[in-house]
Each structure stands twice: as C-alpha cells, then as structure tokens.
Amino acid sequence: MKVLSIAFNTFRENLRDKLLYNLLIFALLMIGSSLILMRLTLGEFHRLILDIGLGSINFFGVLIAIFVGIGLVSKEIEKKTIYTIISKPVARFQFLLGKYVGLSLTLLINTAIMACGLLAVLYMQDVPIHAVLFKALIMIVVEFMVITAVALLFSTFSSATFSAIFTLALYVIGHLTPDLKAFGEKMGGLGKTILEGMYYVLPNLDRFNLKGHVTHQLDVPTGDLLVIGAYGLAYTAFLLTLASVIFQRRDFR
Amino acid sequence: MNIDSEQIITVHHLSKIFKVGFWGRRVTAVDELSLDVQRGEIYGFLGPNGAGKTTTIKMLMGLIYPSQGTAHLFGQPVGDRAAKAKVGFLPESPYFYDYLTSREFLRFYGHLFGLLGSMLEKRIDELLELVGMVHARDLQLRKFSKGMLQRVGIAQALINDPELVILDEPMSGLDPIGRKEVRDLIVRLKESGKTVMFSSHILHDAELLCDRVAMIMKGKLVACGLVSELIDHGTTQEVEMVVDRLSPEGIEALRPLAMKTVLHGERVMAILASQRQVDDALEILRANKAKLVSLIPHKASLEDLFIRKAKGVQQVVEVHA
Ligand SMILES: Nc1ncnc2c1ncn2[C@@H]1O[C@H](COP(=O)(O)OP(=O)(O)OP(=O)(O)O)[C@@H](O)[C@H]1O
Ligand SMILES: [Mg+2]
Predict the structure, then answer these.
(1) What pLDDT score does A40 carry?
(2) Which residues of A touch B84 (CB under 8 A)?
(3) Nearest C-alpha to atom 22 of ligand 1 is from which residue?
(4) Contact residues of ligand 1, CB 6 A cut-off
(5) Which stretches within A125-249 are classed as H helix?
C-alpha cells in the first residue's frame, strides 16, 4: 500500500518530466524513419525495419531508465521532499522500492507506446509479425528493469552526473561481457582472473538481446525465455537489496 | 537508562558531528545533549540560528544518525516504525511535491499511514478547515505562498492524529495573524491531550505557549526547565513602585527593601529587586497612609535569559522539572 502510493506518485512525477516526452518523440521518429529508409533500400528491408525498430526502443528506453532513474532518489534528497516521507512509518527500503516500481511503470508504458509505433510501421510495410518479436520486447523490458535498478543503486550514494556516467558505462560493458571472458582467456594470469570475475559479477545484458532472433525469424523456446527472465529478476533483486543497504545507512542532510 | 512511559521523548547524551568539505573538517552540531519531553506538555526547543535545533530534530525523526548517544520516542529507539506512526512532523521551511494540490498532497501522506477511503477524505476536509486552507484545496502547491505552504505542512503533520507533534520553526514565514493561529492551534493540540515539541528562535512565542523549554547554543544545552522558573531563577525581575505622600519615616522604612529610591517632591519612586519585596512595601504604604500611584513589574523575559546566555554564561541553569 505504502509502496504503491509512492510508486504511483513517482509515476505521476515522471509524467511531468519533459525529458521523457522528448526521448519518446525521438524514439517514435526513429522508428517511423524506417518508412522512408525502406524505399531507398532494395531487399532485406524487413530485417532493417525490425533492426532499427527494436534498436530504437532499446536505446531510448535505456536513456529514459538512466536519465530519469538517476534523479529518482537524489532529487528527493536535494529537494528535501524525502524528509516528510521517511519521517512517516515508511521504511527506507519501501521508499526505494516505491520509486523503483514507479519508474518501471513509466518504462513499461513507454515501451508499449514505442512497440505500438513499431507494430504500426511493420503493418504498413506488410512485414510479417512473429511471436518472437513480442518475446524480444518482453526481454527489452527486463533489461530496462535491470538498468533502472543500476541507476537507482548509483543514485543512492553518488551525484546525478556520476550516476549517469557509471550507469552508461555499465550498460556498455554489460553488453560486452562475453567479450570480456574471451579476452581474459587470451590474456591468462591475473588479467584472466579479473576479467572473468567481471564477467560473473556484471550483468550480462547481451542475454536480453533477442534482436538477432527476430530479424532471422528464429523462435526462442519459452524455457530459455524463463531462464533469462529469472536471471534478470534475480539480478534486479540483488541490485535493489544492495541499494537498500546503502540507503539505510545514509544521512539526509 | 530508565525510561518511564510518560516520557514521550528521551534524549541521552546525543551528539552529531558533521564532516564538511573535501578534508572532512569536523563540525559539532549537537554536543552531548540530554533532554526529555513528558506526555501532554508543550515543549519549546530554543536557540539562535545554527544552534543545532534542526539537527536534533532530524535525529529524532530518523533522518540522520547520531554520532553518539541515544534518542527514544515512546520508549522505542528512533526510527521504530510503530513509534513513527504516532508522530507528526513538520520540517523546517518545508519542501513538498509541488505539482500536487492540497487534497492530493494530504491524501498521499494519509496513504503512507495506511489511511484510506472516506475516513481519510473526511480527515483531509477537517484539516484543511483547521489550517484555514479550504479555499486552496484544489490549488497546486507550487502556486502557494510561503505561509500557505507552512499551513498545509502543519496539516500534513496532523493527518494521522498523532500523539506527539514535532514542529521545526512552525511560525516562520507566517504573518502576525498566522502566527497567532498557529499558537492557538498548538494550545488546542495540548488541550486534546497531545504532546507538542517545537523549535523556535522567537522567544515570545515560546513564552506564551510552553510548559517547559530547553535552550541550546552551539549544540549544548544551556538552560532547561519550566518557563516561569527559568525566568525567576535565571533573570532578575524588578518592580517599579511610585508612591505619593509617603512620610519621611515611611521612606526610611522603604529604603532597605528597594534597590534604589528616587525622591521628586511629594513623589517617591522605588525599584524593588523582585516581586518578593512587594508585599512588605505595600505594608509600609498602608501603615503610612500613602497613596500608591503605580506598581509596574519590569517584566523579565526569556529574551533576557537568552541574551545573557549568549553573552557567554556557559554554566547550565538546571531547574527542577
Ligand atoms: N548538512 C550539514 N552539513 C554540515 N554541517 C551542518 C549541516 N547541517 C547543519 N550543520 C551545522 O550544524 C550546526 C547546527 O545547524 P542546525 O541547522 O541544526 O541549526 P538550527 O538550530 O536549526 O538553526 P536555525 O535556527 O537557523 O534553523 C550549524 O553550525 C550548521 O552549520
Ligand atoms: Mg533550524
């Protein structure tokens, strides 16, 4: 109940964020742009539309997750709005969870809007729509959940700018973790240990990327989907727990 | 430590050290502070700017952690959620979500206490009425003046019908009428059995309202006790007496009682050191059939105590509570 109130209020607050609309409009323009692109490109255009569409949804969603996410907590502390909330019978982790759920809701709705844009484009261009597209969209949302949790974690102890940089860096590295492992294998010795450690600790974001399956119309078994989803949720839970532990010890001054 | 059930707030050797700047310079904001607030009283928490009032209150509300010492609300360590459910809190120059209207704002805080539905709506109406904000119930907070914010801030602090109300500078930003209203409100809270602690550097308000006060400076307690006794013990309270037609013997009798006597024709002005001499002096007048023109207590106030303390009287005036 308390968590939901905070979540709903966060959602309302997000809806007032101009950045959100700007990013959303850009995303829709990108997705729509494939309407023009296609006419210039001969052949392979189905693949291109899907590639640009899913890529845009992912990219702009991540931007929203990061740039709205980093302000979630730090802004409350800066503006001192947190004083009246934490002094109520609300545990600090409930506050964090509420903020998190609120932004997740925002992202879910944004993704739905962007997905509708993509579906409209696909329909107009007579691109066949397969079930794997929806599976890919779900995995994109799971990735957003992880990224949001990362942004939230950083924002519990560092400034908005640093949080943004850290989260972006983690997003990039998170998509390169298989390379980290491969690279470590080649290096051997201490480098191998460190890179392998990073491979296991950092989120393996590439697992959530099903774009290749969609463009090549390869289905993903539901079992695999569940495993990846469970991985995302577990990682999110881990990040939120860590964020709560740090947040619990903070002075709001 | 012995915490009895009538002690609503218990603060024991509480300290807070802030580390500021790049080098982590240590600033002691609250220094070994001990105090207690009893059920049903209005407790004034006084001190000049930067004394550590807000810091202490933030520790009581679990917003910052003490460096040393302990603080309890309702016998529970601060931060305990069951205890917080019985507390209302107004922060200093309050900041709220400014895109909400008064009603939405109060509804949000009601939800945080698990209040719902028509009961909550009724409570919101009552509170808007109480703080005189009915006219602005559907106005967004960002369109509010400072005083209006202060009022909805107070309403917010009362949403859960708290047993203990902690207000940080509740009168700040209010016009004289608003201040009077807040004073009346605090008195009404006390009458309905609530305990109120408020901080202020406006001593006049504290003097009118408080049962007891604590005065802090540079994070240290410098005086605490009943307002009346603090004024008696900590300050002198002279009485100026003007008399006509007092016989020379009468004047001689009066002299030892007075700190100073001035003769001006028929008229005598005597400054008595305190109210304790007044009865004896009146006895002399009556015996001499003199005429009392005026009897004016030079009212000493918390202000005097405050100023004396500020001048460096560091020893603690401890008056039995
Ligand atoms: N966040 C902070 N970081 C560092 N020092 C602080 C911080 N907050 C307060 N202080 C210091 O602690 C001391 C007490 O400040 P506090 O705000 O508690 O005073 P106050 O009694 O509430 O004053 P006022 O009447 O102006 O509200 C001051 O010296 C202040 O500089
Ligand atoms: Mg203050």
Answers:
(1) 60
(2) 87-89
(3) B54
(4) A 253; B 18, 20, 27, 29, 47, 49-55, 92, 201
(5) 131-155, 160-174, 177-187, 189-201, 211-215, 222-249
Task: Give how far Cα B213 sits from Cα of B35, B82, B92, Å.
Answer: 10, 27, 19
Give the pLDDT confidence of B1-30 residue by residue, as tens digits: 444 558 899 999 999 999 988 888 999 999
Please, what is the angle between helix A92-124 and helix A18-40, to 10°?
20
- Residues in chain A, total: 253
What CA–CA distance (Å, rounded) separates B107 from B100?
Answer: 10
pLDDT reading at A44 higher than 80: no
Token reading at A181: 């492992």
For residue B51, report the distance from its CA to the centre of ligand 1, in Å: 7
Measured distance CA(A55)–CA(A164) in Å, rounded: 20
Q: What are the φ and ψ backbone dihedral angles of A201, each rounded to 5 degrees?
A: -85, -45
CA distance B283 to B279: 6
Q: Give tens-digit pLDDT for B135-191.
A: 998 999 999 988 889 999 999 999 999 999 999 999 887 888 888 889 999 999 999
Say how many C-beta atoms besides its own lie within 10 A of residue A136's C-beta. Answer: 25
- C-alpha to C-alpha distance for A205 and A225, rounded to whole angstroms: 14
Task: Give the closest of B61, B112, B160 to A5, CB-based.
Answer: B112
CB A142 within 8 A of CB A233: yes
Ligand that comes closest to the CA of residue B58: 1
Pocket test for ligand 1, best of B14, B17, B18 (most atoms within 8 A of CB): B18
Contact criterion met (CB below 8 Å) for B75 and B5: yes
Separation of alpha carbons B120 and B162, rounded Å: 14
**Residue B38 burial (CB count, 10 A):** 15
For residue A84, which residues of chain B lie inside 8 Å, CB to CB?
Answer: 89, 91, 94, 96, 109, 153, 156
Please tell me whether residue A44 adopts helix, strand or coil conformation: coil
CB A174 within 8 A of CB A204: yes
